[in-house]
Amino acid sequence: MLLMSCIALASFAQNYPSGKSILDKVDNNMSAKSRVLTARMEINSARGTRTMESKSWGMGTEKSFTEYLAPAREKGTKMLKLDNQLWIYSPTTDRVIQISGHMLRQSVMGSDMSYEDMMTDRPLLEQYKAEVTGEETVDGRKCWVVNLTAIIADVNYASQKMWVDEERYVPLKVELFAKGGKLLKRITFSDVQRIQNRWYPKSFVYKDMLKDGKGTKMIIEEIQMDVAIPASVFNKGNLK
Amino acid sequence: MPIIVVSLGVMITVFLQAYMNGIFNDSIETTAKFSSGHVKVMTEAYKENQSQMPNDYAVMNIKSVINKLNKTYPDMTWTDRIQFGGLLDAPDSMGVTRSQGNVLGMGIHLLGNNDEINRMDLKSKLFAGRFPQKPGEIMVTNELFKKMNLKLGDRVTLISNTMYGDMAMYNFVVCGTIHFGTQVLDKGMVVADIEDIRVALNMEDAAGEVLGFFTGETYDNSRAKELAAGFNQENTNKSDQFSLAMLPMSGISGMDFMIAYSENAQYIIIFIFVFAMSIVLWNAGLVGGLRRYGEFGLRLAIGENKHEIYRSLVGEALLVGLIGSFIGIALGLVFSWLMQHYGIDARSMMKNSNMMLPSVFRSQINTTTYFIGFIPGVLSTVIGASLAGIGVYKRQTANLFKELEG
């Protein structure tokens, strides 16, 4: 009886796809050689909600350039990421400052995202071992539950748990954990739409689980993928 | 001679008590003026995390809050301040960072009035340059100034957090340097006008804390506690993190011990000194009694009663003690008053000191000063004579004439 149960369990487990294959399909949807997007960021804090508008250009995960368009105080603030370096230009001071060290742990525009969260520049499979551990339903969609465990020391989060839509291969929820297993951040994705032959979530909520509050909501208003972007965009001279 | 000895001892005791009182109260006042106020008003959430200076829980509508405090407590002076942490970044001619330093900062009222400058005695702490005279100017501690290789007139950028948690960057021009005399502050502190800090940290009509001072008076712990209790009853709501809360200075972390210590330590120190002085005067009484050993023998021999001799000895000691005490107290009060009024200016000695002390040392006369001298002056002298006088009872009449012959 025990032997038959084990055999049944083993067959059931084998029906799960590999973590690698799921993440590859997620990458096909979420990653692009290049992208240009305009977004609105709703930052919820104890003081109320503030809304930022921005436009971003990105090449893979190595290069990105963001300019804030509104509100007036933030307008003209620019950020440039090149590999693992990040610079910020502030129009009020007319200074370009490199963000490094402990400053990377600071919040981006007061949101629940840190500059460190923006610095992830390597594919997940280079940093984590992925394993499908089950199935759950999120927002009415059946999802693979994928556990990611760090395989290198230099990672922002020691482990992650990802709920991936079984049909569309888009993450609907991601939880990020510290070494001791403490939940640090939760990202929930929604408004998944078909864009240029891929599924893409046009909205996500980023929540710092160590803080009270409703988190930060990012709404992508417009996105174009695999478009030509002049190299000059990713130049430090473009910051001023 | 005995009166002179008693007077000197009492004078020293009185002066020491006034001096200790002055030093301890001055230290408390310096702390109050610099950081805690006699009372402090902030939001409930700010109060819970004071050491982190959480400006995201700053007091809003600060002008209206201060107006209300002025109306409700007209016998107090109120001032708002903003404390913050961050980085000070100095660029080269191309605008690239050439040096950076971690800083603690304070936004206080500097432009338009000198109240805060006088309250915090900043003039004595000014090392080079001048105070800000227009917006966009900042003072840094001398140690940080040297560490970052700055010059007066250099442009620096403050990098900190706004009240909303995002990154703040704001340019200043270094106009002066200060030396506080405390390592933790001198390592990296900046001071700028509060309106500049409000703009820099996006804190319009807000401040981290409001400090209250008893106008023209020193800290009174019981009065401050009563004031805070009354305020909190009307204003504080534990479930509302932005409701206002008031703390007396003794309620601020670390200050409770210091105030209790200063309230009691000066008495402990004075007690020790008074005890030592008492032993000296006691000894003087003893010596006096012993010196008159022969006199007592003669008086016994001619028929005077032992009790009468003892009483006269104690009575004389009481008289000497009283006269000596009055003279000693008078002299002690004169010196104490001079030191209270003029003080000892230690500015030149403290330029490079590593202690945050008042720049002028003053004593402080209080009710205790008028009476403390009687403890060594009267009590010790009388006890000394009383003990010496016991010898009178041990004298044997049969031996008296032998002593006389001797």
> How many individual domains of chain B?
2
CATH superfamily of chain A: Lipoprotein localisation LolA/LolB/LppX
Give the overall form of chain A: globular
Rg of chain A over CA atoms, rounded to whole Å, is 19 Å
Protein topology:
The complex is a heterodimer of chains A (240) and B (406).
Chain A: H1 2-14, H2 19-30, E1 34-45, E2 48-59, E3 63-70, E4 78-82, E5 85-90, E6 95-99, H3 115-118, H4 124-127, E7 128-138, E8 141-150, E9 159-165, E10 171-177, E11 183-195, E12 198-208, E13 216-225
Antiparallel strand pairs in A: 1-2, 1-13, 2-3, 3-4, 4-5, 5-6, 7-8, 8-9, 9-10, 10-11, 11-12, 12-13
Chain B: H1 2-36, E1 39-43, H2 44-48, E2 59-60, H3 62-72, E3 76-91, E4 97-108, H4 115-119, E5 126-129, E6 137-141, H5 142-147, E7 155-161, E8 167-178, H6 183-186, E9 189-193, H7 194-200, E10 206-207, E11 209-214, H8 221-235, E12 244-248, H9 255-291, H10 293-301, H11 306-342, E13 344-345, H12 347-350, E14 360-361, H13 367-371, H14 374-394, H15 397-405
Parallel strand pairs in B: 4-9, 6-8
Antiparallel strand pairs in B: 1-11, 1-12, 2-10, 3-4, 3-7, 3-11, 5-8, 6-9, 7-8, 13-14
Describe this structure in words.
The complex is a heterodimer of chains A (240) and B (406). The model of chain A has no long low-confidence stretch (mean pLDDT 88). Chain A has a 13-stranded antiparallel beta sheet with strand order 6-5-4-3-2-1-13-12-11-10-9-8-7. Chain A has helices at 2-14, 19-30, 115-118, 124-127; strands at residues 34-45, 48-59, 63-70, 78-82, 85-90, 95-99, 128-138, 141-150, 159-165, 171-177, 183-195, 198-208, 216-225. In chain A, 14% of the residues lie in helices and 49% in strands. Chain A has 240 residues and is mostly beta strands. Chain A has a single domain (18-239), classed as outer membrane lipoprotein receptor (LolB), chain A, CATH 2.50.20. Chain A is built from four helices and 13 strands. With 406 residues, chain B is of the alpha+beta class. Chain B has two domains: 2-25 and 258-405, no CATH class; 39-218, no CATH class. Chain B has 15 helices and 14 strands. A six-stranded mixed beta barrel of chain B has the order 3-4-9-6-8-7. In chain B, strand 3 (76-91) and strand 4 form a beta hairpin. Chain B is elongated and about 105 Å long. Chain B starts with a helix and ends with a helix. Chains A and B meet through strand 6 of A and strand 3, strand 7 and strand 8 of B.
